[in-house]
Amino acid sequence: MAGFVVMCVGMFIALLDIQIVASSLQDIGGGLSAAQDEISWVQTAYLIAEIVMIPLSGWLTRVFSTRWLFTLSAAGFTASSLLCALAWNIQSMILFRALQGMLGASMIPTVFTSSFHYFQGARRVYSAAVIGTIASVAPTLGPVIGGWLTDAMDWHWLFYVNLLPGLAITVLVPMLVDIDKPDLSLLRGADYPGIALMAAGLGTLEYTLEEGTRWNWFDDATIRRTAAISIVSLLLFAWRSLRVSNPVVDLRAFGNRNFAIGCFLSFVTGIGIFTTIYLTPLFLGYTRGFSAFQIGAAIFSTGIASLIGTPVYILLARRFDPRWLMAAGLACFASAMVSYSLITSDWGGAELLWPQLLRGFPQVFAVAPSVNLGLGSLPPERLKYASGLFNMMRNLGGAVGIAGAAAIVNDQTNLHFDHIATRMTAASGPTTRLLDSVGARYAALPGALDDGHAAALRQLWHLAYREASTLAFADAFRAIAIAFLVATLLVPLLRKPGAPVPASAAH
């Protein structure tokens, strides 16, 4: 049991670091003299490396064993965190963040599979609740903790904070975890072409999703090439994985209805958790002008609500079908997104409180049942391979959601701005009065370098853009609500899992 607790700490810090830089990107960029279009790669590099490595965790666990893979992952994550703190320019930071994501990735799915070893029968409700809480709370707390560290000290502490827990995990896991034995002979017959195809496909897919909006998608030659490479590589990888006898990823697990639906639901929860964390700090930072600490304080209530939801879920999971708890959680999350869509340019922490409570509380209801419903229906020997796929879908959902949200905000801001601007004419009484009022006040200022009318026009442009941007954020939240509504309707298709299917019956 102590080994499981230590592994959960490792999972927490690996998930925390996906978003710990979210509210501090401007500070990191300033400290490293980075251009605006380079800063986002501090986050993107981590996600690309993590998404590529997570599906390989099942095969790597069989090669090195759970104990030593987790130990190596924790040690590598800790060392790369130190390198991130010592980065001297944006290029070195991006490289070290990629290493951090790649080396720490295996700490996430191995916790999922280990829970089935440590907890049996009805006790799996507790393990699923713990894992679900970590999976939902850690990314939510990332910007909060990151904002506080950056304001209280500086951005280097976003990475220094990993060193002590990372070293503790590296020392304790070999002493406490003993689940399986390594089998280094698997290295000889591994499907290395399949690994290369999967890495190429997922890496270029993540790049396409992250950079597509910035470069106007397929108008850019590089985006067209990476999209083509991704499609071809992933198709070849799927074809090869279904034909070879020793695939590194068990795609045949998608033949299990619970697992397939569970992966889709995991994908949608990834959209909700990661995209909302992306959108909220973005809105508060650019529309409201909040600092990193103010952003963290404003979204802190989501993490508190998630923690409160955990004991409630455990209590209800003993009495009710997990499918209906999951449906309730997804529906509640959809309602929260509808609440977010009512956002105005005046919203701050107080106005966001209720939508964030409504989003944070049901996160464990949306995540925890999917662990038992999706993975619990598979035979034990397939769990290691399937867990990597299951976790990858959540992170991939986050990548797709963030890319889609960025595209919506970008395109809809321009659309709403055009609609607002066409109504701001000389025939509009409010517009004329605003121009006259602002112009008169500006012209009366001592030492004014410009005429009042020009200053009033600039002020009017900023107001129109702020409102257009706010409406675009509302559109993005509505899109997330639709995704969760679809997910809610799919829950009844899940079967309540019984005892795991024996290996002989699984083939």
TrEMBL record:
PROSITE patterns for the chain = MFS
Q: Give the source's domain of life in one word.
A: Bacteria
The answer to whether keyword Membrane applies is: yes
Chief location of this protein within or outside the cell: membrane
For this protein, the parts annotated as crossing the membrane are 44-61, 68-88, 94-113, 125-145, 157-177, 189-209, 221-239, 259-280, 292-317, 324-343, 363-380, 392-409, 476-494
- Name this protein carries in UniProt: DHA2 family efflux MFS transporter permease subunit
Instruction: Please provide the record's keywords in A-Z order.
Output: Cell membrane, Membrane, Transmembrane, Transmembrane helix, Transport
Membrane topology qualifier = Multi-pass membrane protein
Which residue intervals define the domain Major facilitator superfamily (MFS) profile in the entry? 3-499
